[in-house]
Amino acid sequence: MTRFFPAFLFLALFTLSLGLAGSIAQAQQATSASLEHSAEPHASAFSAALKANAAHIIKGSVKTAQSVIDAIQETGSPAADMFLDLWQNKDVWYRKKDKALFTVKKKDSKTYTLFDPESGDPVGTASKKEIKQIKPNSGVRAMVGAALVANQLVSEDVELRKASLDSLARDPKPSHLLPLRRAVSRETDEGLKRSMIRLERLLTTQYDKDEKARVAAIRSFASDLGLDVRARLNPILASRIVVEKTEREDEGTARRVYAGSDEHLSVTQAYDMLVAKGWASADISPDQKYDTLVANIKDGQVGGLPVASLNEPEARHTAYKALVEAGLAPHDPSDEEVAAAVANAAFYAVYDEPSEAVIKATQETLASIETRVSLSEFADLFLDGLSLASIFFLAAIGLAITFGVMGVINMAHGEFIMMGAYTGYLVQQYITNYTLSIIVAIPAAFVVTFAAGVALERLVIRHLYHRPLETLLATFGVSIALQQLAKNIFGTQARPLTSPEWLDGALVINDVISISWIRVAIFALSLIFFAMLWFILNRTRLGLETRAVTQNPRMAASMGINPNKINMLTFGLGSGIAGIAGVAIGLFAKVTSELGSDYIVQSFMTVVVGGVGNIWGTLAGAAMIGFLQKGIEWFNPSNTLAAQTFMIIFIIIFIQFRPRGIIALKGRAAGD
Known about the structure:
single chain; five-stranded antiparallel β-sheet; three-stranded antiparallel β-sheet; 26 helices; about 65% helix
């Protein structure tokens, strides 16, 4: 026995060492698995959630969908929202044998590649028979969508919250109301919070179950002119027309309509409703009468009349009436009978909305909005007229000075406007900074057109003083020549005169009132030029001499003033201002050789109506013509030419009663 003891001891120690080694290996494996689990907590939790809820995901019941959604989102995995989005869009599949969930991509005609829903890595392939697409119903998809919205609305990323709110606003659903309210209480960005609150009130108007909450939300929009508000409130007043034999006692959820007076109910439609109810006999069409007459021909007669005599409508009517009296044809109600039947019935537009309080609040709110919209449309029309008046003022002020001082009808004034616009275009070819280019273009256009005006006065006009017809023809010829010269240099294609970025867009006051920043800038420029010209004419020596020549050129000459020099400088000044107007107009109009011709008629009308030679008169004339044209266009916005025609007719009539204009100027300009 003692001989074998060492051997037993060796075997025992060997067995013990093997056991210890196995235990250590198992411990290392467990530790390794534990470390792996702690390194990827989301992956295992997400996978476990999918596996535990696979049956409910595949079945897609509304009863279990919310618990599945909560379980997936509680994992905190970045893949949770991605999976919910795939589930909502029917992009999740399952393997039939083990109910495992995948996303798939077609590999060939018979094989699909399977992808892990969390990592997106390929995990194998399967045939079409082995897998099946999960198609959740609309109710489940709505719940998933609401969950996604709720999650995104409380995201840490403010841009994601904004994008989610914009997406919700485009396609809101009743299920979005509760998540939106929760998000409002947690929102920290003030601007975004105001948007959330407004959208929450919009959804409340339609989807809230509490009548008082809906009424309060509806009334809160009484001063809101947003199109989305009207888009939400108008469907609340959706109605269907019904007919009743007697008048309703309670009309809270319906309104009385009258056939023929209401645009939604004609007399014919109303009578058809009575026929459908069985309360009136059907109206017989001419074709039905004809078929009845043919069917009742006997021995060459119908209703006691020979067939040959039925060529006339009156004879056919008599024959048909005889058939009715004989009981062989249905009665055809006369127009008087139709009108009487309709008048004796009560027609109502019954609202789809069952709550009388909600209907009343909606009607009052929409009425308040419509009143404000009308006022805003008037204000918008006023701003459009003011903008157009400022453009006409800029275009005409130079002409007013030259015409008032010199009595010259300058038909080439529009071409100075065109030259100013082209000067701005050329400046922008060398100065790419648009703000700086406009700053440079304004004085450059003034210099160019001032020089052109002086040249025109010295070379042509000074030889034609006191000969208005020859002056008109000569400047008209110059106008044509300048247009052709511009075509030869720049071509017939419109050239761009680009405005600075800070002039892009519009000044938006509300959803009805807006005006482009370019128009605002032109209005400001008009005020600046008005003030500048007033100062020049009333506070400088040039202005004093100009007014002296305007009032009495001979007396001015006797006082040492050179009328020829004043005429030259005045004509150059008027032409230079036209060039600046060309830069301003070119920012929003097409710069072509015909640019000036589009404004020459309005410029002359502005000068004549306002009173020649007077900047206050020019201002009044520009305002009158601008507002008048916009007012006429408001009645017929699709026909601008008709508006201009009516405006010219009005001005002709106006001049008959006030030939010297709104503000007449004494002196040569007035014809004294």
